[in-house]
Design a protein that fits this description.
430 residues, alpha/beta, six-stranded parallel β-sheet, 14 strands, binds 1,4-dihydronicotinamide adenine dinucleotide, binds uridine-5'-diphosphate-glucuronic acid, 6-PGluconate_DH-like_C_sf, NAD(P)-bd_dom_sf, UDP-glucose 6-dehydrogenase activity, UDP-glucose 6-dehydrogenase, oxidoreductase
Length: 430
């Protein structure tokens, strides 16, 4: 099948490269010329395990990219993988999505065959049918349900394992209203459904939109709950990880997403919980539990720094920050817990020495005047204290590097560093 994917970021590039690998002809449309050039040169524009191999194999061949929306006319289905950020008021900001949809509608105006447009971006219930569909119909002059169809196909992949997650998801959700949309989506996803254990959920468009928010809100709240329990554990000198392991054996709770620590960040949990809270309030419903989940999350970096304060006054001292990415396996620093941690350290007058295996350049844009070390060892050298913010495996292997610290105080926000003789070790929730 001929597919176009509008937006070529974490989702758009991953989805496009995987669909090309399943044998589809795929065109990415993006306004960023560097992203387009990279894909056509068979280079991955973002860091994701396994993506480089796929783009190397298919880029410039079955996988192409362009800045020209006209390319969508040559395709049967267009997926929208555009950003849906948080606006200043906490609500979903649809400006970028609407601009992309308008350009797509203009391009489709001169296409004769019927076309399916699938919203893959995360959007609040009602957006596909009340915002996307009318703009498309207006710009293209086409008739909804006849030669223009819309659908919603939420994406559940995680950064850092995007390719593996996309190929083998727990579920694939089709939110549709017409048989045409259902049939085309089944055809697009046939190879993935054949080669994975994914459950197919066929539902309405608004339900599909809400499933995505419910999924993320549940997971974010689960981590906040385990963080709250972990904070109580710490006060009572109980190891929260032992407790989590035991409660996770109850399959009503489940063993995953029980890692307590410095909290959740990233490009999606914070914005999606915020958008859902705002949408609930717009409907005159006060989502008390989700608000509390956000509040607990915002306090975890302060608790980490309070623990450091117990052992040293950071003013004028070198403090190593180990990990800048919002989670391991990615160079993404959006809403990383490292941001409030670095801000808090600087407010205390500390000289921050930061290290991350892949996210340094992205964090440098945010904090240009922080010292970025080339290794964890270099960051720790001469430091009076260290905080661990991202659970990169390489931090677990650190050992003699702590001997180079001037004062070996380590506050671990992710349960990654091994306790050892010679360091003063504080776990955030254990
Ligand atoms: N990042 C993730 O792990 C996941 C993201 N999502 C959702 O997927 C959507 C996309 O997210 P990401 O891939 O993270 O975004 P991103 O920020 O990584 O990439 C978006 C891309 O869209 C391009 N773009 C912006 N305006 C455009 C326009 N008018 N026309 C064409 N291209 C344009 C940008 O240049 C960029 O390359 C969001 O709604 C997000 O909530 C859903 C599941 C996972
Ligand atoms: O909508 C999205 O963008 C995606 O958001 C999350 O994926 P992602 O943000 O890439 O990463 P996660 O692995 O979910 O981690 C999110 C944050 O929670 C934190 N976390 C996760 C698990 C845990 O046990 N403890 C914990 O603190 C991580 O450190 C990270 O900061 C969801 O897991 C995906 O299903 C979803 O598609």
């Amino acid at each position: 099948m001929n597919l176009s994917i509008v937006g070529s970021g974490y989702v758009g590039t991953t989805v496009a490269a995987c669909f090309a690998d399943y044998g589809h002809e795929v065109t990415n449309v993006d306004i960023d010329e560097e992203v387009v050039a990279a894909i056509n040169a068979a280079e991955a524009p973002i860091h994701e395990p396994g993506l480089e191999e796929l783009v190397t194999e298919h880029g410039g061949d079955r996988l192409r990219a362009t800045t020209d929306y006209a390319a969508t006319r040559e395709t049967d289905v267009t997926f929208l993988a555009l950003p849906t950020p948080t606006g200043d008021d906490g609500r979903i900001d649809l400006e970028i999505l609407e601009a992309g949809v308008r350009s797509l509608g203009d391009a489709l105006a001169s296409k004769d065959d019927p076309h399916l447009v699938v919203v893959k971006s995360t959007v609040v219930p009602g957006t596909t049918e009340e915002t996307v569909a009318p703009i498309l119909a207006d710009a293209s002059g086409k008739t909804l349900g006849e030669d223009l169809h819309v659908a919603m196909n939420p994406e559940f992949l995680r950064e850092g394992s995007a390719v593996a997650d996309f190929r083998d998801p727990d579920k694939v959700v089709f939110g549709t209203r017409t048989e045409f949309a259902r049939e085309r989506l089944r055809e697009v996803f046939a190879p993935l459904l054949d080669q994975s254990d994914a459950e197919l959920v066929e539902t309405g468009i608004r339900e599909a939109e809400m499933m995505k928010y419910a999924n993320n809100a549940f997971l974010a709240s689960k981590v906040s709950l385990v963080n709250e329990l972990g904070n109580i554990c710490k006060e009572y000198d109980v190891d929260a990880y032992e407790v989590a392991e035991a409660i996770g054996l109850d399959d009503r709770i489940g063993e995953r997403f029980l890692r307590s620590g410095v909290g959740w960040g990233g490009s999606c949990f914070p914005k999606d919980v915020s958008a859902l809270v705002a949408a609930a309030r717009d409907a005159d419903y006060e989502p008390a539990l989700l608000e509390a989940a956000v509040e607990v999350n915002e306090k975890q970096p302060d608790r980490l720094l309070d623990l450091l304060d117990v052992h040293l006054d950071p003013d004028g001292k070198r403090v190593a920050v180990l990990g800048l990415a919002f989670k391991p396996g990615t160079d993404d620093v959006r809403n990383s817990r490292a941001i409030p941690v670095i801000e808090g350290l600087r407010e205390r007058g500390a000289d921050v020495a930061a290290y991350d295996p892949v996210a340094t350049e992205n964090m440098r844009e945010r904090f240009p005047d922080v010292e970025y070390a080339s290794s964890a060892e270099a960051a720790l050298d001469g430091a009076q204290g260290a905080v661990v913010v991202t659970d990169w495996d390489e931090f677990a292997a650190l050992d003699s590097a702590f001997d180079a610290m001037a004062n070996p105080v380590v506050v671990d926000g992710r349960r990654v560093v091994e306790r050892r003789d010679g360091i003063t070790y504080e776990g955030l929730t254990w």
